[in-house]
Amino acid sequence: MTTGLFITFEGIDGAGKSSHIDALARAFAQAGRTALVTREPGGTPLAEKLRELLLHDAMDALTETLLVFAARRDHLAQVIVPALARGEVVLCDRFTDATFAYQGGGRGFDWQVLSQMEQLAQTGLGLEPDLMLNPQLTLWFDLPPELAARRLAAARAPDRFEAQPLEFFTRVAQGYARRAAEAGPRFARIDADRAREHVAAQMLAEVAERGWLPAQGAAA
Ligand SMILES: Nc1ncnc2c1ncn2[C@@H]1O[C@H](COP(=O)(O)OP(=O)(O)O)[C@@H](O)[C@H]1O
Ligand SMILES: Cc1cn([C@H]2C[C@H](O)[C@@H](COP(=O)(O)OP(=O)(O)O)O2)c(=O)[nH]c1=O
């Protein structure tokens, strides 16, 4: 049985995920929980090698999707599942919802095939053998693609995904919206176009609302 807590951060590039993940880890640490911050693609030596290929080498949509799931399987087996079994809080910057949004929405890869690959990659990992491992909460940092592009232009040199045109990110955002509608309460939508302190407060409040942090954490 899973005793830990698995929370993922999602949203288009430039939404503010990386800016807020450490604050949530600190809030859990203050509440006496061990929090592990990790990311996808990546999080293990093998998956970080695959990340380099994904971010910089040209490839077709199927190759991209297979590499993303290969990286995820290694990350789950080596890092996420053992941490959850130890009772830790795992905070992951992107997970399978990103595959539905980027490869499904952005690249147009078949949604049903993605569901089958998800089932394959996230089942039989030793925690709950018959169940597909999924996050308990997904914090979806939602903001208009135009605003995310403006933030990114001021922040860093683009990788292979960030260099895509605005229309790509509009499709990715639609992919996230579709996934959120399908996932129901697992998704918490964060108004990521607001000032940082509001975004941080909403993020903490979503977690506190579920009883995983003390309520005063939400007010901090
Ligand atoms: N609420 C916010 N308001 C304005 N700028 C922000 C906000 N949150 C993050 N940023 C800035 O936007 C850029 C992208 O943020 P980042 O956290 O790297 O996004 P992501 O990890 O989702 O790609 C960074 O320069 C960051 O400082
Ligand atoms: C996890 C995942 C990420 N990606 C893409 C989205 C991002 O553009 C890129 C790297 O994600 P990310 O770590 O958010 O990039 P950065 O550190 O530059 O903010 O990988 C996919 O296309 N599919 C996936 O399943």
TrEMBL record:
Superkingdom assignment: Bacteria
Keyword annotations from UniProtKB, A to Z: ATP-binding, Kinase, Nucleotide biosynthesis, Nucleotide-binding, Transferase
GO CC terms: cytosol
InterPro entries in alphabetical order: P-loop_NTPase (IPR027417), Thymidylate_kin-like_dom (IPR039430), Thymidylate_kinase (IPR018094)
Listed CDD domains: TMPK
SUPFAM superfamilies: P-loop containing nucleoside triphosphate hydrolases
One Pfam family named in its UniProt record: Thymidylate_kin
EC number: 2.7.4.9
Binding residues for ATP: 11-18
Example of a GO biological process term: dTTP biosynthetic process
Catalytic activity: dTMP + ATP = dTDP + ADP
Function: Phosphorylation of dTMP to form dTDP in both de novo and salvage pathways of dTTP synthesis.
HAMAP family per UniProt: Thymidylate_kinase
Similarity remark: Belongs to the thymidylate kinase family.
Protein name (Swiss-Prot/TrEMBL): Thymidylate kinase
UniProt source species: Pulveribacter suum
Species lineage: Bacteria, Pseudomonadati, Pseudomonadota, Betaproteobacteria, Burkholderiales
